[in-house]
Amino acid sequence: MNVLKLGIPKGSLEDATIALFAKSGWQIKLASRNYFPEVDDPELSCSICRPQEMSRYVESGMLDAGITGKDWTMENESDVAVIADLVYSKVSRKPTRWVIAVPGDSNITRVEQLDGKRIATELVNVTRTFFEQRGLTVDITFSWGATEAKAVSGLADAIVEVTETESTIRAHGLRVIHEMMQSNTQLIANKAAMADPWKREKIENIAMLLQGALRADRIVGLKMNVAKEQLEAVIAMLPSLNAPTVAQLYKQEWFSVETVISEHQVRDLVPKLKKAGAEGIIEYSLNKVI
Predict the structure, then answer these.
(1) Domain that holds residue 57
(2) Domain boundary pick from 127, 159, 182
(3) pTM of the model
(4) Is 212 within 8 Å of 288 (Cβ atoms)?
């Protein structure tokens, strides 16, 4: 039987990734100290590994595909196929940001002022390229963790660190002076695996369902019954991905109207629909929108 080797990111993305796969139709079960979780698909074999290393394993063929950040694929300069952008993180559905930050009391306000200074970061190669492209010479040191502390303690003049909300950076008394790049989660694949018809189809199907699950986030279905005389007025009020679905009720001068809308629109729209004559209004969640 054909089996696809899939990498699941360990760490901050782990829970969000497993939840996304669950919404997409795959149940991945972790066991303590086990790097090979169970999955309810005999055609999948999952491995847990650090997102910083994922692209190397995929490039080498140890994994056929994997979930990792665009930033780490760039950092490793890995020659892989990018199958899909999956914009999610541990706390939001927004891209993450790699920023340059300095101590709050520093007189540095612009990137150019970092010429000849010390920079601490985990993203060494990307950072080096960024400064070289601007003709700036900096001393870049790899940070094994607690990067914010390097600037606070004087071990570095600035740091390059990933953030979503900047709350941790501000909590350490640091100030962002520049956004270096944005990154997001991606599904990547080994190029030889993509040349195999079965693996290619399996990878593309996974991508389709993961993207469908993300697309369904904060979108809901809305269904209601509407009398014939109020039908046009109600339909005119409905936002929709496409035209709403309308079906006549059996032996009635009433219609069932169904549509898909953004979750934040519901609270304002439902009272208006009720006033316009809609009855039996039902809101339901969606797992995927393909």
Answers:
(1) 4-93+185-215
(2) 182
(3) 0.87
(4) yes
CB 186 within 8 Å of CB 82? yes
In contact, 224 and 280? CB cutoff 8 Å:
yes
Give the mean pLDDT of 185-212.
98
State the CB neighbour count (10 A cutoff) for residue 178: 16
In this structure, are 66 and 89 located in the same domain? yes
Q: What is the pLDDT of residue 165?
A: 84
Query: Taken in order 289, 40, 56, 182, is the CA torsion positive or negative?
Result: positive
Region class of 251: left (phi > 0), else alpha (psi between -120 and 50), else beta: left
Query: Averaged over 125-151, what is the pLDDT?
Result: 94
DSSP code of residue 244: P
Q: Where are the beta strands (DSSP E) in 76-192?
A: 81-86, 96-103, 118-121, 139-142, 158-163, 174-183, 185-189
